[in-house]
Every structure is written in structure tokens, then in C-alpha cells.
Amino acid sequence: MALSLDFLALPLMVAASLVFISVLAGVLSTRKGFSFLLVFLLVGTLAGEDGPGGLVFDDFRLAFWVGNVALAVILLDGGLRTDFTTFRTGLKPSLLLATLGVVVCTAITGAAAHWLLDLSWPLALLVGAIVGSTDAAAVFSLLKSSGVRLNERVAATLEIESGMNDPMAVYLTLTFIGVALAAAAAPGQAGGLDAVEVLRTLLQQFGWGAALGLCSGFALAELLQRLGRGTYGSGGIRALLVVSGGLAVFGATTWLGGSGFLAVYAMGVITGNRARRQVRAVLSAMDGYAWLSQAGMFLLLGLLVTPSALLRTLWPALGVSLVLMLVARPLSVWLCLAPLRFNVREMTFISWVGLRGAVPIVLAVFPLMAGAPDAPIFFNVAFVVVLTSLLLQGSTIAWSATRLGVTLPDPTDAAQARLVYGDFVIDAGTPMDQLCAFYGLPVPAEPAQTLGQWLNDELNRPPVAGDSAMLGAAELSVRLMDGAQIAQVGIKLG
Q1: Residue bearing the bigger pLDDT, 335 or 89
Q2: Which of 352, 381, 404 is the last residue of a domain?
């Protein structure tokens, strides 16, 4: 009797065909402004049991495993591409958004879920925790494919936040699962939390994640530098080395009770900056790994969804999604960023680009695996939130960035640069009294200071290209930075 290879051929044919169709549809859909990730999710849904494909897939454990591995690869790739200089402007706001911002989003969205879905407070706050963080896969890929060049402050804040806020979301999700299970086991009791245990778990998540991520990053950077440029140091082999090392660190950190997501992102940042020349050769291969991870993850998560079950909670879930996008996210952004002197346009854009992707769907699998009450509701709500976020927010990134004026001109487009910065370029070392006398502008209180010093004082925050301040009828804009110092200023006369 001949050996049948159908068990290999059929699943491989189906999986490869789904990826091929998704990529082809994604290439065509991006011309209309739709996200690649949205296409992957929809193709997976159409291939599922309620769609034309009719594939029955309900292995949540496999989806959970694949989702976590894929997110680790995506975060590693994002970390490798993050320059240390972006932390000058992005670290403080990102830390606030990744901690306080996630808590505020969780609380407000949880209140909406309590009212719209008629859930108990522990379960409602669990819904808020599941959808409370932005998604690295969505942010990294959509900012890259949007075609716009954001100013450094906005881009750094969004990218670093998406790489750092997963630990808080995972921590809150696990915490509220514990509360919900305790309340279900003892009806009528609050199922309170031990404050000391909460603090210990939080410190363990962030402590192990940061420590192992930083140490492994230094170690991997040293190893890559020692490999040199020989055959075994080629881009493909080195990329495989980086990915396998990142996944090993992710697994070890998670096993020790830390945040594997934080560890793998920190590892990528350290490695990418300390072994910059060696890492540059792996970025092309890493891009392929990251896209394959996103494709597999979103297709698998789409297959898990049963649209007929989704319809039963569709309208309340849409209400939760709208509250998250229009109330919870904007309020959390304003609370965190207004004290740091972000302007209204920057905060509005960051509020709108609070993209939700695979992370909420992966987190929604946690209560299903833990046997929490009403667990299927969480998955359905998370899917609706992700779908609306990718459809409404993901497809309008370029448009909203342009409308809000947070983009920078292409360095090669002289006409656009003049439109943004003005016709005149002035060295930042020019004394203010000379500048004001030449252009007939009001003299500031300290006329002896340089233009760069005056503009830096007026901004009262780390300057980036595109920042501007008014002096009389003239608008003075940061045109070029030299590290942390302003090098050139553009002037537009009223």
C-alpha cells in the first residue's frame, strides 16, 4: 500500500494559498488606502466555517502560541529599527502612555463594557484590559506603509509606546482574570486583590523583562560584532541567529515570570544600536520574517472568528470600540502628553493612531484558556475593536497626518521644504539682535542669545525638525538638527 502524503499536501496547499491570496489582495487594497493587516484578517474570516472556505478551526491554544511567537518576532524587528536618538524625545511620553495611558483606557473602556454589555465590573474591566494597549504589528507596519514622514516626536512616541505597552496590558488582563475567577468561585464576594502581590507581580513583569532584554541585547551585539563579515556572518544566517536568539529570550523571560514582550523589544533596541553595521545587513531578512509573522497571525486569528456568533454582540461591541477610539484613547493621551507640552495637533494625531491589532485578539484567548465566565464575549468584542480600528484608523493615517500638519517634507523636495520652512535658511548660531535688526522683528528679552537658544527656550521641550515658534509676524521653524542641538532654522515672514 502506497504511503499517502495528503496530510502534508492539503494543509500546506491551503495555508500557502491563503497567504498568497492575502498578499495579492493586500497589494491591490493598499492602493485604496486599506491596511494589509485588515486584508489578512478578512481573508482568514472568509476562509472560516461561516465563510465560503468552510474551514473549521477552533484550536485556541495553537492560535495563542502562534500569536505570541509572531508578536515576539514583530517586536524584535521593531526594536532593531529603533534608533537611540528617538528616545531623546519619545521615551518619557511613551512610558506614560504605556503605563498610565493603558490604565486610563482600561478603566474608561471597562465602564463602557459594563453598561453596553451588561457585564459585572471584574469582567467589564477585563474587556478594557484586553483592548487597552496599542499594537506593535499594526503601528510598525502601517506607519511604514503609509508613505508619510512624521516628525520625530510623534513617530518616536507612537513606535516606542507600541513596543512597551504590552506588558501592562498582559498584567492587567491576568489580574482581572484572577478577580473574575475569584468572584465566580465565591458569589457575592468582591474577590479583592492583595495590594502587595499586585505590586510584586508588576515589578516582576517589568524587572525581568528589562533586565533580561538589556543583558541579552548587549550579549547579542557583541556576538554579531565578533562574527565579522565572513560567510557565516552573511545577512541570511545572521538574521536567523537574531530571530532564534530573540525567541529564546522571549521564552526564558516568560518562563521566569517576566514580560517576554518587553525583553525582546529591549533586546532589539540594544542590538540594533550597538551593532548597527552588522544589523543593517539583516534588516531585509527581518522584514520578511516580520511580514510572515503578521500574515500567519492575522490569518489564524481570522479563522478563529465565527461571524454568526459575532452578530449577537455586534452593536454593543461597536459601542465599546467607539468609546475606546473617541473617548478613552484621546483622554488618556491628553492626560499623559499635555504636561509634556505636546501641541494639540500632535496629541490629536497620536490619539487617532492608537491602533489595535493582533494583541487584543491574542489577549482575548487568555480568558478562554482560563475558563473565565462569558469568555467567548471577550474574543468577539476584541475582534470587532480590531476590525474597526484597522478599517477606520489604519486607512486614514496618511490623510490625518497631512490634515493635522504633523508630517515633514521629503528632504529631496525643495519646493515642499520652502512651503513648510520658508524661503530663508538661517544658521542657529546667529545672534538674535542681528537677526531682529536685519528682518525688522521685535527684539526678545535676551538679545545676546543665539537663534537656536531662543527657539529652544520658546519650545521648552526637546526640539525636533518641524517645531516652530512665532516672533512678531515671523514663523521660525527647526529645519535641521545636529544630535540634540538645533543646527538650521527656516524663517517665514508674515
Answers
A1: 335
A2: 404
Residue with cell 495590594: 195
pTM over 0.85: yes
Strand partners, 424: 491
Q: Is residue 411 predicted with pLDDT exceeding 80?
A: no
The verdict on 426 and 307 lying in the same domain is no
Above 50 in pLDDT, residue 242?
yes
Whether 6 maps to a domain, the answer reads no
Whether 124 and 231 map to the same domain: the answer is: yes
**79 and 187 assigned to the same domain:** yes
Looking up residue 281, the CATH number of its domain turns out to be 1.20.1530.20
pLDDT in tens, 372-400: 888 889 999 999 999 999 889 988 998 99
Q: Which secondary structure element, helix H or strand E, spans residue 207, and what is its range?
A: helix 195-227
CA angle (471 as vertex; 465, 476 as ends), nearest 5? 20
5 pLDDT band, cuts 50/70/90, is low
What is the widest separation between alpha-carbon atoms in the chain? 97
Reported as half-sphere exposure (CB side, CA atoms, 13 A), residue 382 has a value of 33
Any idea what DSSP says for residue 407? Answer: B
Task: Check residue 179 and give its pLDDT.
Answer: 86
Strands annotated E in 316-465: 424-427
Q: How far apart are CA 236 and CA 361, in angstroms?
A: 31
Domain end call among 371, 404, 437 = 404
Plot region of 491 (φ>0 → left; ψ -120 to 50 → alpha; else → beta): beta
Asked if residue 385 and residue 252 are part of one domain, the reply reads yes
Query: What mean pLDDT do residues 166-171 have?
Result: 85
Q: Which three cell numbers stand for residue 350?
A: 497620536
What is the rounded CA–CA span in Å between residue 42 and residue 247? Answer: 28
pLDDT band at 190 (very low <50, low <70, confident <90, very high): very low
Residue 238: is its pLDDT beyond 50?
A: yes
First to last CA, the chain: 88
